[in-house]
Specification:
InterPro entries: Cof (IPR000150), HAD-like_sf (IPR036412), HAD-SF_hydro_IIB (IPR006379), HAD_sf (IPR023214). Pfam families: Hydrolase_3 (PF08282). GO terms for molecular function: magnesium ion binding; phosphatase activity. Helix content is 34%, strand content 22%. With 265 residues, the protein is of the alpha/beta class. It has two domains: 155 residues, HAD superfamily/HAD-like (Rossmann fold), CATH 3.40.50.1000; 98 residues, Hypothetical Protein, Haloacid Dehalogenase-like Hydrolase, Chain: A, domain 2 (2-Layer Sandwich), CATH 3.30.1240.10. The strands form two sheets. It has an eight-stranded mixed beta sheet with strand order 5-4-3-2-1-12-13-14, with helices on both faces.
Length: 265
Amino acid sequence: MNYRLIALDVDGTLLNDNHELTPRVAAAVREAARQGAEIVICTGRGSTSALGVLRELGLQGTMITHNGASIVDSETREVIHDTAISHELARRYMSFLQERGIHFDLNTAFDLFVEEMNEEAAAMYEHLLAQPIRRSFAQALPEPLVKMSIYAPKSVLDTVEIEWHSWTHELQTIRSGDYFIDVQHPKASKGQALRWLAEQRGIARESILAMGNYYNDMEMLEYAGRGVAMDNSPAEVKAAADEVTVSNNEDGVAVILERLVQTAQ
């Protein structure tokens, strides 16, 4: 086994566009784990949502969630490491979104809170195996707050990014999908979280394989000893990777694991 740790993005990478874990991908991931690799889900999803994916794989262990803002243990639900953001800084973004009627949620490591929810947002949460908690944001906000996630049509988010371009940002904004922008601590990223975890494990970069498909995966792909982008990735993400495989709809994760991991035994 050449890789001690395998970091896998979920949406657009591990799952196909129908949010399905195919039998071929599941079998390849399980085989890599059987051979001794630590499988680490590394996702923009919250921890509760990511748990469902890990359980479908029949695995347990450490997960990097909320784009690296949280590192959690899937069995004990212990938060091993997180990067919280202040309520004062978060409210600046909240006010902007509330004035424009744009949907957003607030996240702790395991819980997701919404003040309002339309049918489109409800369907999105169902696809992501997330269970929003209704709560007024007028007074106290959730604590510790690790991420704000904004959900809207691509054209709306494109406009938001244009408007925010002129801001001086004390928090990080990252496009984690065509329909999502995440607001989080400036030091939170999948790459930084993967680095932290690897150092805790005593695992060298050369022994890490990472796979992803979107902008929030770029730092992780660059950090890993081998970073692999899906063919459904934007050009910038492909450029950050060491290799590009077939798309998530063509079992790209399995294609890589069958070649790099299973043939190495």
